[in-house]
Amino acid sequence: MCTYRTELVSLAASSGKGADGWFSVTDATVYFDHPVHAPVDHSLNIDFRNPAGGPSARVAVELSEESARALVAAIQATLDAGNGH
Amino acid sequence: MITGAGGDEIEVYQALPEGDGPFPGVVVIHHLPGFDRATKEIARRFATMGYSTAMPNLYWREAPGAAPDDAAATARAAGGVPDERLVGDVRGVADYLRALPNANGKVGAIGYCSGGRQAFLSGVEAGVDAAVDCYGAFVTGVRPEGHPLNVVPLTDRVAELACPLLGLFGADDKYPSPEHVAELEELLTEHGKIFEIHSYPDAGHAFFAVDRPSYRVAAANDGWQRISTFFGTYLGQ
After folding, report:
1. H or E segment and range at residue B188
2. ipTM of the predicted structure?
3. pTM of the model
4. Rounded to 5°, angle at Cα B81 from B186 and B34
């Protein structure tokens, strides 16, 4: 399956580290599709991007579905615990 | 570099057979992950089969000189490649191949994944002599709600298909599903088109991709044989 399913998210006050060091990330693209590298048929892929910096201003991850769900839960739990710190 | 849609100069990877020819041409249309090494290897395989082969970088305008995966990410975020631009790029590459001094004047198009649909579209609009659709989604079927990419089904364009079509699909695929493939077959039959469709059991999407877990050697080997016969018949190799 080639899902093309893609979600676009705007990011604020956020940064990522790429091949040339840290940079601001302004957009995230989230999609479930064929990975470039992860050894699964389909993966949950996230591109943290800064389009103003060109195509290479990107931090990319490809996660198996199980790993992505675990990560979502961990992010949620961490944010919930940290809220009102 | 060759001249594509709108007179733009775009990057092209070419692989040429040895010998005097005359040789038919093949335009290879890369998959959604872009102008990558794996698809360049496919282009070289066509050259070994006796086809002057060229693959346009469909993401050149958004991401000139970028790594293929970065370029694909940029193109995806931008909503994909507009159909009109794709047609112009394929037409430009086909014209280039036909103008080679050892050309036989025939040019086919083949595409994988998103390129499968684009190969079909090339058969409608780009003036190619034969088209091969390898598991292209949204030739038929319905675009899902909230779909962010510029991909619309081509159901209403089937009547305009202007060349023979070979379709190669995996029965386990969901986009295109066996129902989508059946719909395509019905429409091609209804409109009296010359076509062959093969759907492989135990194969899903991207079964030709040798560097991915989706690779299915039996389907891929049979598919390559079908492609060889099909292009041989309609392009004269």
Report:
1. helix B178-190
2. 0.75
3. 0.89
4. 95
Q: Does A51 touch chain B (CB under 8 A)?
A: yes
Give the number of other Cβ atoms within 10 Å of residue A7's Cβ: 12
Give me the residues of B, 94-123, that contact A with CB < 8 A.
113-114
Write the pLDDT tens digit of every residue in A32-77: 988 889 998 889 999 999 999 999 999 999 999 999 999 999 999 9
Q: How confident is the model at residue A1 (pLDDT cuts 50, 70, 90)?
A: very low
Amino acid in position B218: A
Averaged pLDDT of chain B: 95
The stretch B135-153 carries a mean pLDDT of 81
Query: How many CB atoms lie under 10 A from the CB of residue B13?
Result: 16
Instruction: Classify domain B2-235 at the CATH superfamily level.
Output: Alpha/Beta hydrolase fold, catalytic domain (3.40.50.1820)
Residues of B with Cβ-Cβ distance to A6 under 8 angstroms: 76-77, 148-149
Structure tokens at A39: 């050894």
Residue of B32, B62, B77 lying closest to A2 (CB–CB):
B32
A56 touching B (Cβ < 8 Å)? yes
A1 with B70: Cβ contact below 8 A: no
d(CA A69, CA B116): 31
Query: Is A2 touching B (CB cutoff 8 A)?
Result: yes
Report the residue of B57, B61, B76 to disrupt the A interface, i.e. the one with the largest count of A CBs within 10 Å.
Answer: B76
CA dist., res. B168 & res. B134, Å (int): 5
Q: Enumerate residues 6+ apart whose C-beta is below 8 A from B182.
A: none
Q: Where are the domains of chain B?
A: 2-235
